[in-house]
Here is the input.
Amino acid sequence: MEREWVVEESVAVSAGSEAVYAAVADLRRMGEWSPEVFAVLVRGRTIAPGTRFIGFNRIGWRVWFTTCQVTSAVPGKAFAFRVSSFGMPVALWGYRVEDVSDDPSTPRTRLTEYWEDLRRDNRGAAFVSLLGKVFTGVPAQGRAAVNRAGMRATLDRVRTAVEKG
Here is the structure.
């Protein structure tokens, strides 16, 4: 099986793009959405490109943290951040938010979550991949499948919460 370096999943949300964006760009709520993230530590209130944060994650009994930096924050359109471990690039995570409504009285938004594995692009790739397996229990070759399942759960949770208002 060939390794996947990029994964993305989408969901249709019966809400406006601004509300959908607000949900995914609120880093402090990531623990509500993601089956892997249980907490996020962000300094300050403003979330903008350059904002740094720490993500606390778990799979089963394994717990680890990552350092992250927001790379894109365009209200109603896109939100993304880079993940690193020990200063080495690990991944790019992001959301694309697209208004797909035919009727302004019935808002509908396509929310796409994507992940790109950045470990192939750095000199410490083997080390970061080994750390990933030790801390998460997921070998690098299986990370895309784990992320795809997590994205589906995340998108479903965001959709449900945003549609409830």
Q: What stands out?
A: The domain at 6-164 is CATH 3.30.530.20 (Alpha-D-Glucose-1,6-Bisphosphate; Chain A, domain 4). The two ends are 42 Å apart (CA to CA). The longest helix spans residues 143-164. Helices lie at 17-25, 30-33, 125-136, 143-164.
